[in-house]
Amino acid sequence: MPAWSDFEPFIVSGLALGGVYALSGVGLVVLYRATGVLYLAFGAVGAMGALIAWSLTQAGTPGWVSWLVCVAFAAAVTLAYGTVFGPALAGRDPLVKAVATIGLTLVLYGAMDLLWTTSGGEARSLTLPTDNSGFSVGQILVNWTQVIALAAGVVITVATGAFLRYTKLGTAMRAMANDRVITATLGVPVRRVEAAAWLGCGVLAGIAGLLLADLVALDATTLTFLVISSLAAVLIARLRSIALAFAAAIAIGLIHDLLTPITSLTNYRDMTPFVLAAIALLVLSRRRVMTQSREEA
User: Fold this and answer.
1) pTM for the whole structure
2) What residues form DSSP beta bridges with 5?
3) How far is CA 69 from the centre of its chain?
4) Which of 210, 203, 207, 201 is nearest to 53 (CA)?
């Protein structure tokens, strides 16, 4: 086993990664509760936004403009998809809703492969200015990008919880999660509420894409499929609790990075989301069976 000092840097990187997974998970949970759609294109939208931001930066565009374009692109694509296909998906089976966005994922992934081909071996990196400064905790150097990533996860989770509880739009989203038809008959503008959920999810996808491109790698495949970690977190939360999704995301990010210095387990660290999600689902299903058995008894 490596010494404890070997793990310390990966605690910081794991918390930062977990923070991004958390804000991604919040977006996925809110959209699912409002529309019933599991947005599997979340990673692909953020990845393409990050690549567009990189291209603009390479062309001499100011960094802040490129970052805004990344977020705006992700928000626009997500909102457009929700506006066009959302109403058609409203009355479909849960399974159809769950896999409906795979097509968008494949389209975006194909576009990225065509426009930003890696055949030439071109090295890309999207570096935020917050990488160049930070502070030390003992022997560990923490940059401000890592702090922002974790803080974003915390702030988005708390703010979204307050939004759902204390605002009219949030109350409408919670009502739609329980019964869309009854909510509509009560005069709630269902289409507008759904559009707000799609737009918010798209904004978070753009932010997550920027942060992950800096923290992990500016690579279409890597960024597209990092959404799996966020999906694992929301599955652990049973697509309902944003607080539980936050805790699960932090755990996934931490465990994933803490396995890095362990040589025998490094190559298996990408299995972390699947293993944790499987364990959580098995425990939850076992508790449900035990509860039902007690009630029947």
Assistant:
1) 0.89
2) none
3) 19
4) 210
Reduced to 3 states (helix: H, G, I; strand: E, B; else coil), residue 116 is coil
State phi, psi for 60 to the nearest 5 degrees: 100, 5
Residue 70 CA to residue 17 CA, distance in Å, equals 19
For residue 227, the number of C-alpha atoms closer than 13 Å in the C-beta half-sphere is: 25
Burial zone of 62 (CB within 10 Å; 0-12 exposed, 13-18 middle, 19+ buried): exposed
Helices (H), the chain: 4-35, 42-58, 63-90, 94-99, 102-115, 144-166, 168-178, 180-185, 190-215, 220-225, 227-236, 242-258, 272-296
Could you tell me the sign of the dihedral formed by the alpha carbons of 255, 260, 266, 270, in that order?
positive
d(C-alpha 76, C-alpha 177), whole Å: 24
Count of CB atoms situated within 10 Å of the CB of 271? 13
pLDDT digits (tens, 9 = 90+) for 190-242: 888 889 999 999 999 999 999 999 998 888 888 888 888 888 899 888 888 89
Q: Which domains does the chain have, with CATH numbers?
A: 4-114+131-296 (1.10.3470)
Other C-beta atoms closer than 10 Å to the C-beta of 44 total 29
Write the burial class of residue 225 (CB in 10 Å: 0-12 exposed, 13-18 middle, 19+ buried).
Answer: middle
Please give the structure tokens belonging to residue 130: 């917050």
Tell me the two tokens of residue 153. Answer: 């996860």
